[in-house]
């Protein structure tokens, strides 16, 4: 299903996006050396409940996971990159953390992810990986607008990642979003311009470039959810939910202070 939001729904989408962004920013600020991933999940739950919103993850049970997910946020560390299920682990100096959060407020969902380093250590290549996903994300957003095609976004993202020297996995990518978290169209992180669905005002997309340092192959943890690099290398992931407008693309998942 491809869903086109009306103006009233878009107003609610802005609120959902701001909530997701503000929660992620708060969690990043609270996360440091010694923070337990289960505490991050509890903090996320408390902020979601306080806002009168609902987690998109707790009851999430797609075909590729061993569901339901059972937690309020995805927490991926170092070689984990997607669908990281929180567990009893305390963050160490230099850990590369990805927090991925999807929340529904007023019946409209928003989805975003951030990667960052904990503590003072800066292991080789980690900052470059995070920055590559951020550049790719903004390149994809820059070409999104009415009349553009999904392939234009995929090509823009993949070009940045490829030029930075990373292989691109095409099993998981961006997606449509609206009254539910995952909708059509699928947005691959590499592709050919001029192909695919033509973007229309009112369409919401979650764009999410992610990379692994030296491989494009994933393996799944025994928890049935957490996806890691097959070689044990580090990973990074950046995501925004955007709305296609008459004028281009609006980023919905910016923290309140950056709007």
Provide structural commentary:
This protein has helices at 7-30, 37-50, 126-143, 150-163, and strands at 54-55, 74-77, 80-82, 96-105, 108-117, 174-176, 183-187, 204-207, 210-212, 218-220, 227-229, 235-237, 240-245, 248-251. By secondary structure, the protein is an alpha+beta fold. The chain has a 5-stranded antiparallel β-sheet. Strands 1, 2, 4 and 5 form a 4-stranded antiparallel β-sheet that branches. A hairpin with a 6-residue loop joins strand 6 and strand 7 (183-187). The chain is globular, with a radius of gyration of 17 Å. A divalent metal cation 1 binds at residues 100, 111, 239. Keywords: Aminopeptidase, Hydrolase, Metal-binding, Protease. Its EC number is 3.4.11.18.
Shape: globular
Residues in helix, % = 25-40%
How big is the Rg? 17 Å
Q: How large is the share of residues in beta strands?
A: 15-25%
Q: Which class do the helix and strand fractions yield?
A: alpha+beta
* Low-confidence runs: none
């Amino acid at each position: 299903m491809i869903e086109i939001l009306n103006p009233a729904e878009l107003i609610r989408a802005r609120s959902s996006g701001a909530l997701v962004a503000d929660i992620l920013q708060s969690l990043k600020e609270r996360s440091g050396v010694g923070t337990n991933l289960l505490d991050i999940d509890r903090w996320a739950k408390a902020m979601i409940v306080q806002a009168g919103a609902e987690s998109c993850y707790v009851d999430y049970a797609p075909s590729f996971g061993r569901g339901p997910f059972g937690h309020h946020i995805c927490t991926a560390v170092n070689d984990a990159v997607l669908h990281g299920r929180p567990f009893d682990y305390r963050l160490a100096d230099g850990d590369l953390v990805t927090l991925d959060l999807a929340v529904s407020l007023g019946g409209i969902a928003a989805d975003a992810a951030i990667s960052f380093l904990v503590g003072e250590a800066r292991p080789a290549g980690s900052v470059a990986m995070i920055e590559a996903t951020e550049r790719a994300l903004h390149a994809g957003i820059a070409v999104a607008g009415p009349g553009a095609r999904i392939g234009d976004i995929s090509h823009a993202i993949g070009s940045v990642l490829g030029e930075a020297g990373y292989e691109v996995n095409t099993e998981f990518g961006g997606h449509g979003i609206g009254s539910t978290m995952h909708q059509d169209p699928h947005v691959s992180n590499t592709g050919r311009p001029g192909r695919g669905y033509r973007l229309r005002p009112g369409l919401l997309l979650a764009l999410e470039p992610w990379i692994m340092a030296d491989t494009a192959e994933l393996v799944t943890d025994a928890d049935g959810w957490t996806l890691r690099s097959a070689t044990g290398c580090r990973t990074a992931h950046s995501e925004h939910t955007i709305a296609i407008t008459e004028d281009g693309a609006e980023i919905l998942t910016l923290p309140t202070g950056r709007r």
